[in-house]
Amino acid sequence: MTGQPKNYHRQAEDTVALKGKPRWLKAVASESRQTSEALRKSELLMRAINVSARDAVLMMDAEGRVSYWNPAAERILGYTSDEALGRNLHSLLAPQHYRRLFEAAFPEFQRSGCGNNVEKTMRLKALRKNGDEFPVELSLAGVQLHDGWHAVGIIRDISNRELSDKALRESEDKFRTYMEKAPLGIFVADHTGRCLEANQAACRMSGYTEEELLELSLQDFLAPDFSGVGMASFKKLKTEGRVDGDLMVRGKNGKNFWINLVATTIGPDRVLAYCQDITRRKQTEEEIQKMAYHDALTGLPNRKLFSDRLGIALAQARRDQKGIAAIILDLDNFKDVNDTFGHDVGDRLLQAAAERLSAALRKSDTVARLGGDEFVLILPDLKGTEDVDRVAQKIVDGFRNPFSIDTHQLIVTTSIGIAVYPRDGISEVLLLKHADIAMYQVKQAGRNGYRFFNPNSS
């Protein structure tokens, strides 16, 4: 072998050193690529967010100049990115009265990144490119870079929100005005019926002040006899969302009166109720009802109501297998009273006779006036004719006492005819016919008495 002998040990070290260096460089390069890739992804993500954002996103450098302007800023503020970049942000967007405030606060932000307007959301006005002022929400944050503090701002156009808020306020004002001026009583209650609001008409109607009403529930207004009806109405309101009906309620003075109530649910936990005092209407309805079924002079049931009650009594008698007495009577020589003393005295005599007849009967009995001086009676639930005898004799005896009409002492007797179900007939027509026959038999016998129908009597 020729040449210098080789140093295999040194050669091995050099080989290891050469082989180790590329592995280290590869690790550094790989880490750098990963960092760059993460940074690139982060930048792409932030760019995508800013591009797709519905709010204006912008940046201001340490000198107050615009350094970033996203597409939403172009749409909301009217300036393109090229028009906005590099311009002073305050002079670009702030109306004069806001500009002085921001310019006064900017030196502090340049020094420390802090200030009264940083890291908070403000409502203020901004300027569009065309000079229009519009309401915005502005959020600012400071970012410290190598050349000083930069600001990141997000501007949200709240024009539509303010219009909605204004419309809501106007609607609430209109509702409040309507509540105060409405002639109807208006209540707002929660889902339990507790009163939350009430207008002046409701206060006048109930007699309570608004403060007192707010301590009460709608159930507290119900008259005792209507508490069950009120509870049923409230349950219906919860299931169907609306109730409409007439209720009797009690005012602060303890007096009952009628209202018409219309209540609807508003959302899950509110009830709006309108009520109108209908006491006069109810009284009128009762008067009309009374006129339709009662005699105007005496207040007794008239022929129609008497017929209805006799029909009901007959049905109950058939079911219970009991007796009924149908009685017809008139006043003896009543025509002479009218002719002698006049119709006014005659009318007052009929009224007094009606009172005397009513006093002789049980609560379950009925006395009605058919017309003129003719009265009819129903005696239900008879166990025997002796009950009828007692009532008839009581009436005859009562009529023997004088009637005091003005200065007159009038003695007027009565003739009474009686028919008994089922012996003398099973229908209304037959009973009244046979009672009428019996009454005329009394008159033929000299008046001032009573008689049961007897088919064998002439």
From TrEMBL:
<dbReference type="Pfam" id="PF13426">
    <property type="entry name" value="PAS_9"/>
</dbReference>
<dbReference type="InterPro" id="IPR035965">
    <property type="entry name" value="PAS-like_dom_sf"/>
</dbReference>
<dbReference type="GO" id="GO:0003824">
    <property type="term" value="F:catalytic activity"/>
</dbReference>
<dbReference type="InterPro" id="IPR001610">
    <property type="entry name" value="PAC"/>
</dbReference>
<dbReference type="InterPro" id="IPR000014">
    <property type="entry name" value="PAS"/>
</dbReference>
<dbReference type="InterPro" id="IPR000160">
    <property type="entry name" value="GGDEF_dom"/>
</dbReference>
<feature type="domain" description="PAS">
    <location>
        <begin position="41"/>
        <end position="113"/>
    </location>
</feature>
<dbReference type="Pfam" id="PF00990">
    <property type="entry name" value="GGDEF"/>
</dbReference>
<dbReference type="InterPro" id="IPR043128">
    <property type="entry name" value="Rev_trsase/Diguanyl_cyclase"/>
</dbReference>
<dbReference type="InterPro" id="IPR000700">
    <property type="entry name" value="PAS-assoc_C"/>
</dbReference>
<dbReference type="InterPro" id="IPR052155">
    <property type="entry name" value="Biofilm_reg_signaling"/>
</dbReference>
<dbReference type="InterPro" id="IPR029787">
    <property type="entry name" value="Nucleotide_cyclase"/>
</dbReference>
<feature type="domain" description="PAC">
    <location>
        <begin position="120"/>
        <end position="170"/>
    </location>
</feature>
<feature type="domain" description="GGDEF">
    <location>
        <begin position="322"/>
        <end position="455"/>
    </location>
</feature>
<protein>
    <submittedName>
        <fullName>Diguanylate cyclase with PAS/PAC sensor</fullName>
    </submittedName>
</protein>
<feature type="domain" description="PAS">
    <location>
        <begin position="171"/>
        <end position="225"/>
    </location>
</feature>
